[in-house]
Design goal:
Length: about 200
């Protein structure tokens, strides 16, 4: 669909939290007639030909459970979330080591940490650090459900100093201990894009 009148634009997309989301957005773009140059977590580069395409794109993404991010502040917050979710998944897979959040974010987003932190708190009502704790708790729930790793292995993977540290934080955030959570037949988890 690329023609002489088309131009490439970068768009930010909310609620993209995994590789399946990337594939789903790629499918939505293709089925809607948009040529996508690149699609990653929270981001796509597409060719848009006419003004009406923008409205159609917003509607098609919305119907698939995604939203376009239109203002710079919201884009920055969504970018922070995408970086943190990606890092958490990398920790789980063992392909990354824990990093200070300030170093992680400023290495991937060209903005000073104080500004990122302020924007994030104003938009979400929680700090970046608190948000990452909430993400980690949801990931712990997931890993506990799988039953493939011990609590110590989960703690090590996700960057906790010890299994006791993980257990304490888990109880504080969920109101139940890890062992109570394991016994509770069907655990209640949030999707990572619903955290915060």
């Amino acid at each position: 669909m690329n023609s002489d009148n088309s131009k490439n634009i970068d768009i930010k997309i909310k609620h993209m939290v995994c590789d399946r989301c990337v594939e789903r957005v790629r499918d939505v773009l293709e089925n809607s007639g948009f040529h996508s140059e690149e699609v990653n977590l929270g981001y796509a580069r597409i060719s848009v030909m006419e003004q009406g395409d923008w409205v159609r794109l917003k509607n098609d993404l919305y119907e698939a459970g995604f939203e376009l991010v239109e203002d710079a502040e919201t884009q920055r917050v969504e970018q922070i979330k995408a970086v943190l979710i990606t890092h958490l998944n990398e920790l789980q897979e063992g392909s990354a080591k824990p990093k200070k959040l300030s170093e992680l974010l400023t290495s991937r987003i060209p903005w000073h940490y104080e500004g990122l932190s302020r924007s994030f708190r104003q938009a979400t009502g929680v700090t970046i650090e608190r948000y990452f704790i909430l993400l980690k708790i949801e990931k712990v729930k997931e890993l506990l459900e799988y039953g493939e790793l011990t609590l110590a292995q989960i703690a090590d993977r996700l960057g906790y100093s010890s299994s006791q540290h993980l257990s304490g934080q888990f109880k504080k955030e969920t109101g139940v201990s890890v062992s109570e959570y394991r016994k509770n037949g069907k655990p209640v988890r949030k999707r990572l894009n619903e955290v915060g």
